[in-house]
From TrEMBL:
Belongs to the LysR transcriptional regulatory family. PANTHER family: HTH-TYPE TRANSCRIPTIONAL REGULATOR (PTHR30126), HTH-TYPE TRANSCRIPTIONAL REGULATOR GLTR (PTHR30126:SF40). CDD domains: PBP2_LTTR_substrate. Keywords: DNA-binding, Transcription, Transcription regulation. It comes from Bordetella genomosp. 2. This is LysR family transcriptional regulator. Gene3D superfamilies: Periplasmic binding protein-like II, Winged helix-like DNA-binding domain superfamily/Winged helix DNA-binding domain. It comes from the Bacteria. It holds the Pfam family LysR_substrate. One of its GO terms (molecular function) is transcription cis-regulatory region binding.
Amino acid sequence: MKRFSLAQIEALLAIARHGSFHAAAAQLHVTQPTVSLRVRELEEAVGARLFQRAGRRAVLTAEGEVAVRYAGQALGLFDELEARLRTGDPLQGSLRMGSSEMVAMICLPEIVRRLEARYPRVQVEITVANSFVLCDKLNANQLDIAFLADPGVSRHMRLEPLASAEVAWLGSAARPLASSTLKPADLQGLNLLSVPPPSPLYELVAEWCNTGQTPAPAFNTCNSVAIIAKLVCAGVGISALPACVLADELARGSVIRYGQRVPFRPLEICAAYARAPEAAGLHAVVRMARQVMQDLPFIALRPARRPDHSGQGG
């Protein structure tokens, strides 16, 4: 693979902008032969003629037009790299954001919309996954920040509790169960849906079953909370889900929330990010997420406090 130099890319863009090798050399504070050499080396590397002479003017060829487009993108990335490393601000350049599927379903679009409106120079790279997977990615420095449920992160991570989400047994109103109140022993023989272990939701159900000294029942599993929610709405089975993911259907009455003699403990929604000086800009993202969550049904905000690194998710 042939390598291109930043000097070659700058020469290409300067000539395209000013229309001549002479003007480009003046902008770059080098001699015109130096600019000519850089362009010639770039043309040899890509195997195409990038400019045609028209008197004193340099006119882009069709291949040159393509090269300028890519060169502009490449130079922009270098500028982002410089700004990110020089300022330590994760809100300049690419922000690697993780989200549990629950958070993605209820409020991630609004968080990203507000983030991009306030910080137009940020490009968000989103990873949606199980909270346990997100914890692994955070601990491996593959994410800058993640919104997750019941996290377990290492000591180099900050943990900011945001809210708690009610969890309940939900089912279609078109196919209601005989009983409106469930206890662990009532699950046997029912068509149950769940995300597979290991996952916070599965562990929540297993914990609840233990309160009745009942083993966890057999589940039909799916790795997507969104698809399980659709299956519940279709009457395929019932599932223990955060009520917020089907808030509209509960309000319309198309989905039933079953009572429980022993309620589930709520899922704790947290923001997690690195305990490092350059992570200071992420506080703004956390505040934004809290603002978005404050009006959501079946969500209770947690008081803001100093970030913690205990990894205990409630």
